[in-house]
Amino acid sequence: MSLTGNTPEGTGHVGTLTPNQATALKQLWAALYEIQANGTVTVTHDPKLNTPPTPAVDPAPVAASVGWGGGWFGSAAAAPAAPVEPVAEPPLTITLEEVGLSAADVRTELWNNVMCDHPDSLVLRFLRARKWHVGNGLIMLLKAFKWRQEMHVEDVKYWGDNELEAAYPKFKKQLEMGKFYVHGTDKLGQPVVYLNVQLHKAGDQDYKTLERLTIYLMETGRLLIQPPVETVALVFDLTGFGLANMDYNLVQFLVKCFEAYYPESLGAILVHNAPLVFWGVWKVIEPWLDPVVASKIKFTYKNQELLEFIPAEHLPNTFKDAGLDKFIYTYIPPVEGENAAMEDQEKKAQVVKEWDELSGKFDDATRVWIKTGGDVSEEREKLAKELKSQYYKMQPYIRAKNQYQRLNNAGKSVIQPDGTVVWTYHN
């Protein structure tokens, strides 16, 4: 299945791989297993794996179908590039010692990061981000694992809102004030994250609180993405923006997260209603951006322009004369006892053991798949589905609830126990 339901073969997502892309995927899985077994791996890059597939359809409609293309450069469609002769590279040797991870660390961070996704989906994000260079993709993946370990990402998932507030003062205040929220989907089915920049002042809270909040947003957002979609859309609402709202450190951290630690998770960025004072700020920010991230930025000014990307029925009517959804953001606070299952150590040990057994079977099936060839392994696909189901079964015992899993005043939650996401619109 494709990213948006109509993405053609060769786009590099689960179910759309070309033979070259499937080969790169196998090679990265094989390298992951070898580096865990030996502490080192040498990867010889095949330049043919970088060769983009021949488009099956006209490139212009494809570009329009998979994002909010155009950026500030105009149309996302471009003339076909002239063929480039592949360049051979020397073998690349990677060691766990250099990265600062043990073999056990790699396996733990890998499966903590897979969560409810198809395991291939995670690996493919790093391959696409490194243009199918297996060695570079592996290095990027391992560095992301190291970052997750150093940043204690699992704590952000394990701790409830009250615990995060105790450790990071004013954490809940950020949620309560609606500085950011996720609501509904755009025309491509991507969850939309709204960031109300005018509510932010850098000195109002400790920077560590903002780091935790960003990771919280990233990890919560992953639960709101529904396959086959794999990305989110951001709307930076700059209405009322002034220089006091600018936080360069936070912007750098956010950019780094999307580029290095959650690659291929960002579908589009709308910078909305930017005032004149913002353009001096933009001159500072623009050089920080990776070209791939930069290409996903679009500037909008009138609220009606948002309707090109977000259905009126999904857009909050705070965007006057455009949005029809009578949505008012309200933080849903924790309920006493909502994480009681996490205290049941016996049941937790049981469901975690079942997860570990399934992930071990997936590893075994992947090793067979690597050796025997073929683009698809039925056993792996079966196990991937079982892992997804097991994650939701395990989740109440290993992860605290967030506000999208809590019941609102109408007795409804956005995220259902089985992982299904149900948005409610008030039109």
Automatic annotation (TrEMBL):
<dbReference type="Pfam" id="PF00650">
    <property type="entry name" value="CRAL_TRIO"/>
</dbReference>
<dbReference type="InterPro" id="IPR011074">
    <property type="entry name" value="CRAL/TRIO_N_dom"/>
</dbReference>
<dbReference type="InterPro" id="IPR036865">
    <property type="entry name" value="CRAL-TRIO_dom_sf"/>
</dbReference>
<dbReference type="Pfam" id="PF03765">
    <property type="entry name" value="CRAL_TRIO_N"/>
</dbReference>
<protein>
    <recommendedName>
        <fullName>CRAL-TRIO domain-containing protein</fullName>
    </recommendedName>
</protein>
<dbReference type="InterPro" id="IPR001251">
    <property type="entry name" value="CRAL-TRIO_dom"/>
</dbReference>
<feature type="domain" description="CRAL-TRIO">
    <location>
        <begin position="168"/>
        <end position="327"/>
    </location>
</feature>
<dbReference type="InterPro" id="IPR036273">
    <property type="entry name" value="CRAL/TRIO_N_dom_sf"/>
</dbReference>
<dbReference type="InterPro" id="IPR052432">
    <property type="entry name" value="PITP/CRAL-TRIO"/>
</dbReference>
